[in-house]
Amino acid sequence: MKLYKLLSFSFLLATLTSCTFTENIHVNDNGTGKFSVDIDGSALMAMAGDQIGQQMGAEAKKSIDTTFTFKKLFEEKKDSIAKLSPETQKELKKLENYVVNTKMNAEQKEFLMKISNDFKNVNELQDVLQALSAFQKLESAANATAPFGGGFGNNNSKLSFSYDGKKFSRKAVVNKKDAEKKQESEADMSKMIFASSNYILQYHFPKRIKKASNPNAVFSDDRKTITIQYPFTDYMENPDKLNFDVEFEK
């Protein structure tokens, strides 16, 4: 299966129902680390694995376990990318070094996708699902039935992170002007499709956490990992609800 076809099909699965999105950040002592978004759609495969297998044809009879970079995928679609706006091409450029691992097995009812990247500084992190909305524009240019018309992951906000060894913060600032343009029908579709999906923040730090601003935060036994769970509709419709600050022990 070609990389573009596989990734497009994976995103289609992710927009159907019953998926868990986990935003993982592992921060090292020197501020470097690893960022990933893990998508688990196994619940969907358990409900509709046979139908999905039929849609994928003969390729579904074998399990899929593949790893590739967006850079390699974009090489396949360079002609189509050249036709996109400069702004969209710039957004796609941000994805080049992200690694995608997809595991899919209709027989075992498994669908897992990890989109990851190493970072040199927490402050350089961005919202990968927002960036993926640019990929959806590439898909919708070739397919009028692309999920959300190319808007999957676009929650009309700008996400930033900061970390100085003493404090950590995650902050999404909503672009109210763009949010107001969002049609009610699209919002209703989002609620219907993602009603049973969750978005989990799971951050791992090199220091013990003294306190966190979110009252729903759950700490690991060593207080170096924080986990906060939201309905996926909060990520899409109220991204600033996911904002929080962490203060570390001295």
UniProtKB/TrEMBL annotation:
Keywords, alphabetical: Signal
Record's signal peptide: 1-20
Name used for this protein in its record: Lipoprotein
Lineage start: Bacteria, Pseudomonadati, Bacteroidota, Flavobacteriia, Flavobacteriales
